[in-house]
Amino acid sequence: TGKVFDYLNSGRPIIAIPDDKGEINHLLEQTKAGVCLSSPEEIAEKITLWFRKWLECKDLQSGYDKKEVLNYSRAKKTEQLVQILNGLS
Asked: 0.70 cut: is pTM over it?
């Protein structure tokens, strides 16, 4: 699950399997960085769609919310952790 944060910063679309309507699904919807899918048909359809889009314009980042993704960067999460730890003293 932690790898999803590394994948977010790649700028490439993410397919998370299975779609359990959990936190990863919420994160991908919020950042517009990918989708959660379960069925082989859905997965094949999405990969085909992304491949056709890539063939057309080589851009798979349309809709990708870079500003939102930055909220999940290591630097931002470290900053939040420091604020929490400073509040304990």
From this structure: yes
DSSP per position, the chain: -THHHHHHTTTS-EEESS--SSHHHHHHHHHTSEEE--SHHHHHHHHHHHHHHHHHHS---TT--HHHHHTTSHHHHHHHHHHHHHHT-
Closest CA to 6 of 83, 77, 84, 54: 77
42-80, pLDDT tens digit by residue? 999 999 998 998 888 877 766 778 888 888 888 888 899
Which phi and psi (to 5°) does residue 74 adopt? Answer: -60, -40
